[in-house]
From TrEMBL:
Gene that encodes it: rlmN
InterPro entries attached to this UniProt entry: Aldolase_TIM (IPR013785), Methyltransferase_A (IPR040072), RlmN_N (IPR048641), RNA_MTrfase_RlmN (IPR027492), rRNA_lsu_MTrfase_RlmN/Cfr (IPR004383), rSAM (IPR007197), rSAM_sf (IPR058240)
Function: Specifically methylates position 2 of adenine 2503 in 23S rRNA and position 2 of adenine 37 in tRNAs. m2A2503 modification seems to play a crucial role in the proofreading step occurring at the peptidyl transferase center and thus would serve to optimize ribosomal fidelity.
UniProt-recorded name of the protein: Dual-specificity RNA methyltransferase RlmN
Organism, as annotated: Oceanobacter antarcticus
Cofactor binding, note field: Binds 1 [4Fe-4S] cluster. The cluster is coordinated with 3 cysteines and an exchangeable S-adenosyl-L-methionine.
Amino acid sequence: MTDTTQKINLLGLSPAKMEAFFIAIGEKKFRAQQMLKWIHQYGEADFEKMTNMGKPLRAKLAEIAEIRLPEVVYEDISTDGTRKWVMRMPGGSSIETVYIPEKERGTLCVSSQIGCSLDCSFCSTGKQGFNRDLSVAEIIGQVYVAAMSFHGPGERRERRITNVVMMGMGEPLLNFDNVVDAMHLMMEDNAYGLSKRRVTLSTSGVVPMMDKLGEVTDVSLAVSLHAPNDELRNQLVPINRKYPIAELIAATNRYLARLPDRRKATIEYTMMEGVNDSLENAIELAELLKQVPCKINLIPFNPFPNSGYKRPSNNRVYRFRDHLVSQNHIVTIRSTRGDDIDAACGQLVGKVEDRTRRSERYINAVQLDSNQ
Ligand code: SAH
Ligand code: SF4
């Protein structure tokens, strides 16, 4: 029996780990760069086709290694260009990945965990509880699949994905090492070559890990705030009881201060009717955020069954925005895109036995208007 589980999956090796791999098998380290290109730029998963590797090396690789791709169980392309995949992970759970094209860029929303332990009150992923962390291969595999959907195997990849946001399922800072390695692959020239400004990690505020993140990378940061005071945030985002707003703001500023450029944080604020969308909330938020160089992204709540929350009317959203703008904040409102894909998703979710309607949130969540 050939046991593929024993083979090392090269898909998930960061540039540093790829070098270590080739050195460990007695090869020169430049092989790592060649392999990264084959996998991530050409989408080649067959060692035999890697012509610059030499026959004996190809044979050796076939024996000890593999390029194991995620299992795509559903793919859909909306008329507005939005693309959506459901990938089944070993163990049976599925995750979704969404690509949103815009005029000047294409943004991919990537998941970091199956489920989430943080249990924010308005989040369908949180309602599922935590299942497990995704491996590096499972995270970068989402980018691979999306990138490959624009070209055939072996062809050089077009740069259709210009931005990645870690805003899918899960809290990326609670799967720290795997997310950091995957982001390094996203930014590696011989892999996806994205600029650090165009890779964004979104966190609900795991403060100690924000500092750790600043020590190892300089990607862009999005902070899921959703409330202007601790009393309200404690109800919506339970991790706030551990790391309250003042600590979160301080950690955000420490992260920004480490960056070599004058980048701003994105503050995400999911708006729920009658919960956090009043003018008083806007006044308090405007004041609070004077302490942080930021852009504010208002996300009208995406309803899902039994959520207990409602999306506010456009007028309430505009009133909230107008106050923030009057206080000199930069504000964007995420609009819904890929409507026909949303509809498809309703059916899709049933088909793949996915219990949530995450795609709606993804489609809204990826529209970071960061002008990057
Ligand atoms: N765990 C991370 C990243 C994933 S969530 C975080 O919380 O930041 C990505 C974004 O989607 C977060 O800002 C989250 O608050 C938002 N979100 C979750 N559920 C939502 C819903 N039902 N409607 C609108 N936005 C939602
Ligand atoms: Fe987890 Fe983010 Fe959902 Fe909160 S909003 S439960 S942190 S995925």
